[in-house]
Amino acid sequence: MATCGAGSPARSARADGGRVSVQSHTAPAAARPRSAAGRAKLERRLRLAAPLIVLVALCLLLGVANPNFLSTGNFVRVATAASIPLVLTLGATFIILLGSIDLSIEGMMAVAAIVLTLLVANDSGGGFDIGLAAVPVAVAAGTAMGLFNGALHVGLRIPSFMATIGSWFIGLGTATILLGGGSVRILDPDIRALALTRLAGMPLSVWIALAALGVAWVIQTQTRFGRHVYAIGGGEDLAALSGVPIRRTKVIAFALAGTFYGLASVLAAAQLGLANAEIGTGRLFTTITAVVVGGTSLMGGQGGVLNALIGVLIVAVLANGMVLLGIPPYLQQAAQGLMIIVAVALSLDRSQLRIVK
């Protein structure tokens, strides 16, 4: 009995010790997932804040390297240079939020700009000369081409990459036919005023671009359509199961993008004072660069129009700064290419990637 009595406390102690031991091993194991979740959350926040941090750092560095960068005149130049890319990037953002891509920007710009030019006073000896009424017609031409893209992508189930490449070349071909490969100068002073008029020291085109940003933000954040775009980008199958109208949302997104492209083409034609099939040349690269650098994920479902603004400013500030520093054009292109690679590498959530194609 004594032995048993003595043994019971020992066994109890061993049992207690065992429980303590188990608890001491279990607590860190439970803490590890919480710690990992905390790190993942911090990494996501850093990825979201990274574009803004880059923009601020870039401005500070260029300001130190060349004091002229921080002058009022240079600020106006950067804002003017960013106005048209911003409007284009707003349209492209909605497409990329879907997880799709739109490569038809240059073709759409060519058609919309030529429609505008042929409907106002010009040096071709023809046209209808309807003045500012030509602006909504040109924007509507962009919307129509966007609807065409959406119909190809959704109706015929053609990947957006291929559908919009086709539209790109259709647009360029149509523009070339309309003008016979030449250019037409705009003589209408009201159209030219869209770029030349200044309000509070800024060209009117800058204020139009900011108004477009406001409209895009409302659409993205305050409408059911905006929520549907994010849902599709986050997972199309799950969105369909949740009752999201996939086909309709995609078609509307492409039409909306075309509307922004049409507006950008109006501003470009007003700024240049002419239109031709090459008016959008180089705009595609700048637009996609701004979307990616701004932090909108190419996978869809992450980012937004404010990211587009930051991305456009980064691209515009970098280009402006390199000119002020006297960097040759070919090195500027190399820097922009490197910027895309770095931006994509930093924006990817590799924990969600299983296969990279």
Question: Mind explaining what this structure looks like?
Answer:
InterPro entries: ABC_transp_permease (IPR001851). With 357 residues, this protein is mostly helical. The chain has a single domain, classed as ABC transporter involved in vitamin B12 uptake, BtuC (Orthogonal Bundle). It is built from 13 helices and four strands. The strands form two sheets. A two-stranded antiparallel sheet has the order 1-4. A two-stranded antiparallel ribbon has the order 2-3. A hairpin with a 2-residue loop joins strand 2 and strand 3. The radius of gyration is 27 Å and the shape is globular.
* CATH fold-level topology: ABC transporter involved in vitamin B12 uptake, BtuC
Share of β-strand residues: under 5%
User: Strands of the biggest beta sheet: in what spatial order?
Assistant: 1-4
Average pLDDT, to the nearest integer?
87
CA-based shape: globular
How many helices in DSSP terms? 13
Membrane topology: Multi-pass membrane protein
Transmembrane segments: 48-69, 75-98, 105-121, 133-156, 168-187, 199-219, 251-274, 280-298, 305-324, 330-348
Protein name: ABC transporter permease
Pfam families: BPD_transp_2
Give the SSE map.
Elements: H1 2-65, H2 72-97, H3 105-118, H4 134-155, H5 160-179, E1 184-185, H6 189-196, E2 198-199, E3 202-203, H7 204-222, H8 224-234, H9 236-241, H10 246-272, E4 274-275, H11 283-293, H12 305-324, H13 329-347
Antiparallel strand pairs: 1-4, 2-3
Helix pairs in contact: 1-12, 2-7, 2-10, 2-11, 2-12, 3-4, 3-5, 3-10, 4-5, 4-10, 6-10, 7-8, 8-10, 11-12
